[in-house]
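Subtilisin-like protease: structure, please.
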Amino acid sequence: MAVFPNKKHELHTTRSWEFLGLENEGTVYEDSIWRKARLGEDTIIGNLDTGVWPESASFNDEGLGPIPSRWKGTCESGPSDPIHCNRKLIGARFFNKGYVAAGGTLTASQITSRDTNGHGTHTLSTAAGRFVPDASILGFGNGTAKGGAPSARVAAYKVCWEPIDDGGCFDADILAAFDQAIEDGVDVLSVSIGQRAENYSSDGLAIGSFHAVKNGITVVCSGGNTGPSWGTVRNVAPWILTVGASTMDREFISYAILGNGERKIVACRFGNVSSVEKGQTVLLAGGVGVIVTSPATLGNHVPANPHVLPAVELSYGNSLFLDNYINSSTNPVARIIPPTTVVGTKPAPFMAYFSSRGPNPVDPEILKVPSLFICVSIYLSIHLSIYLSLFPFYHPPSLELMKRQYVNSFPVPICALNGLQPDITAPGVSVLAAFTEAVGPSDNFFDDRRVRFNVLSGTSMSCPHISGVAGLLKTLHPDWSPAAIKSAIMTTATTDDNLGKPILDSFFLTATPFSYGSGHVRPNLAMDPGLVYDLTMEDYLMFLCALRYTSGQVATFYGAPFACPPIRLVPRLSAPTIVTRKVKNVGSPGTYTAQVTAPSGTLVNVTPATLVFNKYGQEEAFKVTIEAVTGPQASRYVYGVLTWSDGVHNVSSPIVVGIV
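Here you go.
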């Protein structure tokens, strides 16, 4: 048992599945993971969030067979709100003791697993909603809505209570929901909530997710919405699959024509209150339209919002153009062209400005655990600390921390628990999915509109995309561990956009692994990755031991006594450093060759350079030697990649080097 403060967590979702290659204009091809994995048939995906709107068409059970016999969950109704589940929505529970203990109050009508916020319904339907034709938001984005695993069964675990914006999701409720989901029998847990990254032993989400992974459950979490600053990523425990947010190739575009129109269109600056609230104020004042300008921090990020009057939201570049027009015109007027839905936009994806960035802000010292991740430190006269990461847990700290910790002191531990997370990126901007009918699409008190579907943006929306993919992989490969599923998703990702060029950030500068992790998810390749970096629970326990956790703290995660072995510190090194890793064959027999793009200023050598696999499940080890060969510019990171290839499969892992 561990005692720690009952902290609050924050909520961190259709074109996206076609953008990810699972269909093409409604056609599902033979090589689609949807067809191979039978749309996620009978995998059970749980969702920790604000509950569920059970009447949504996304959770209809038409055509589904009996509920899997292994399911032990139930549908929990409140005192005044009966909740009816079916063969699709097979579970709905609520957890509020932590919320109440923290001072929250609930009326009898509020004690229910029903979603009165919309966030939980949106995320759950993104992960595994059924095919629903004629879905749209106020007539835009019209098409067939669906989740990543449409034939999976779903269960809602309500752990977040009003006021959501203030962080109404508490550790005690999150832990209780994890334990219940484990007992109920879920296969995947989607968790679009989080808090500022901190010591794992006092983080209820980290502890609960460890218990879930121990029981074979893949846990997928949002990376947080506090970007674009570095070191802001959330949910960084290595057993969690952490997701960043990027765009897709669909936009809802509206134009403001300057110099031809009327004076009752008001230009407002982004910030303080929501864009929809600005539009409502303009409407009440007699205005007929609103143009919302963006600051430099937003770059090219322009999300869709459900405005109450004609509106245009501008990128930073277009905002400067508008400011110049207003300041130079004696009679500035405009008219707003009705918005249209445009698909096939380029470049896509690019990283959302809000998507939290690495490196992992948690920074206790640890040693290398060879089977867990690779992280080496080399001390040279130029004070070069090199951090090599070969999937899945790459953990370089911030450069300032490296300067303090490694240049000014010794002996130097071989690694620090800081990471390149998020692990992966997926669509998280203007995602259309099911919504509650308890509130309006803007979630403002004045919004009396009701919609079946809504467009939302956030890593909360990208997270369930990966949860859906994890559900498909679980159906296709029921014997795969959570680590194998995570590896398959990460090592098959791409770092290119739909122009064939490197993924950009919201400022249209080249993004880095600190933004997208291993890259943008490619579900069809993840189902046949060739090789995986698999892990055991002992690997994770050794990871905690390397953080110098006490046996009691480690037992909090493991649920049983565990004696940490002696930990040996590695001094500063002046010679090349060698680390060892292991990969498992999950495909046909084959021969894989190492291909390395070394980070600038380093030399990377892999031995053996060829691995031969004769059977499924065979594991082979390899060694990576890394050394500095030049003196790159200090206070920056350089990046590379290691790929194992048999000519068909390309198993790629980022390499990151921090120069101090």
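Notes: The first strand starts at residue 8 and ends at 11.
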